[in-house]
Amino acid sequence: MTGFDCRDPAAQQAALAELAEAALALYPLGGSPRATLINLSENATFRVDGAANGRRYALRIHRQGYHSREAIASELAWAQALRRSAIVTTPNPTPGRDGALIQAMAHPSMDRPRDVVLFDWEAGVEPEIGDDLDGPFETLGAVTARMHGHARKWRRPEGFTRLTWDFESSLGEDAPHWGRWRDGMGLDAAKTVMFGRTADLIERRLAAYGNGTERFGLVHGDLRLANLLIDGDAVKVIDFDDSGFGWFMYDAATPVSFYEHEPRVPALIDAWVRGYRSVAPLAPEDEAEIPTFVMLRRLLLVAWIGSHSETELARSMGVDYTEGTCALCEGYLSRFG
Fold this sequence. Notes:
Shape: globular
Structural class: alpha+beta
Number of strands: 11
Mean pLDDT: 96
Order of helices and strands: HHEEEHEEEHEHHEEEEHHHHH
CATH topology of the largest domain: Aminoglycoside 3'-phosphotransferase, Chain: A, domain 2
CATH class of the largest domain: Alpha Beta
Low-confidence stretches: none
CATH superfamily of the largest domain: Aminoglycoside phosphotransferase (APH), C-terminal lobe
């Protein structure tokens, strides 16, 4: 662990704030820009105000060791291609003084510089689970269908590289990307057995479902409510940090992340499916497997919470999220086991 990793959460946030303020000098913002932390998960995201042009920006400081610079460049390339093609509104990166979209900034507490990206601020409101979401989910389904169509046809630039989100890298035993679900908060012997049975069933079903190119490709991978902006009738998609190669129907599960247990989720997924089919065909076999991807995502988030205990989101979900997963496992095992 680095000196930064050994610090308590408050000290880490203070160091990230210092780095963010210093990184603003890498951009031709003018005025008196200032950075305010608005989100800390894999990365630290800051709102930037006070630029000479009066515009607001979002500054993202990348977590060390999660993505290479080539992977970050690949993320930006796809998001920009989606925006240019008018598939969906995505964050627009702003180049630094040297013209590069990815900058680097060091801090004394960190053993190497962090990669930094500045984006134009996108207008819109983050939806909440208590809102009327039927319309937005139908719109999101249509947007996702267009994104999938683009991903299938887009000629990726040379050197394009992103993580692969298959079963082994999600819920497997050997170095899954977000840690092991077995290390989730509040797991006891009984829960471990139940979650293990669920993971085994997911693995069997996904093996039968297959990962051919019609079902597996470039996906956003994190279309949860926090990464959507409602701007009038438009649904904007932000934060492509977890984009990579996975099952297309995984994108049907991520919009209900952290709320998978809510009674209204089946109706929201139905709205998503209606929207998707308004743009592209969706085979009955694909729709039928969405519950498997919801369950996959739920166990993956149990792992994420366990491996990101320093974040506010993980602390707020904690043991309660693990407890709430039990009923979902029971229902999934009863339905498909």
